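Backbones bend. To wit:
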Amino acid sequence: MAEAVLIDMFSEEVTSHHYCIKQFLDAAMNIVLKKSDATSSIYIMYCQTFGCDNNDARGLFLHAIRSFQGLKKRIELISTAGVAATLYNVKQKLDESNISRVQIILPKSRTCLMKAFIDRLFTQVYTFEYVLLELNYAQPENSSQSSNVEQAITEKQLELVECDIQIFLGTLPARGELTILKSPLIPESLFNHGFTTRCGGVSCIPELSSLNLYSSNIRKDSPAVVAENLRRLSVAVGFSSKSFYLVKAAHASDVWIMGQKEPDSYDGIVTNQKGVTVAAPGADCIPLLFSDPVKKAYGAAHSGNKVRHMIS
């Protein structure tokens, strides 16, 4: 059963009239009463610019749910200028409460669009149940789409989703100063190199804060946040994030020689190609960098803690 419920009020059809708001929230709250845990948090998400100022909007929503007094203490209204910012705000609240099972109540027409945001801002650590509401009130005369039909998302819409996320994440303040440590053993005139610290990124998960550069299905840090951390690192150091390669660590001995077929997993990368950045992760493991100034070759390797434990 869901530990938190998100109610999507971003649709113009939902917020076009006071009656529409009340009808949608009535239906959503009845679903909450029937299908959610009695202690689950409820987040009503809406856009600040849906037609009235923020205080008026809050008043409308609070008035619309006045008949559900038993739920009021569990309800929080969350409003920002965009979907990405709102979902990011919600995710922080979920993470603070260690919540991973989430129910989303939304108009059927917005399902694919919402899933596109969720896929980019969350990982598989979280499970989402989508409850689709069919809207029975009349559509605006100039509307060519029905809210009761699940609309397939277009390539253009996907680009807008990714743009919304990237722009928002780019506005977040860095957590600490981005610092690059250099090795005197590697000639700086030949190889742009360095070791990052934990500081200077935007990741807010405590164990991953803040310059996390690795995303996986078992972590809470989303691919979008990791991509923003990498973007900031690339700007600071001077490389292209599009030609950045991180080893796919498996605590084994496989090495990928760039130019040959890429293995499914490998703990080392070597190359002599120009304009390529290779890297290895390090947490309780040790990242190693290699350079050959004669052959102009370089590499990165992940020295896993499992191997070190076996040796010690």
The domain at 173-311 is CATH 3.60.140.10 (CNF1/YfiH-like putative cysteine hydrolases). Confidence is low (pLDDT under 50) at residues 140-146, 308-312.
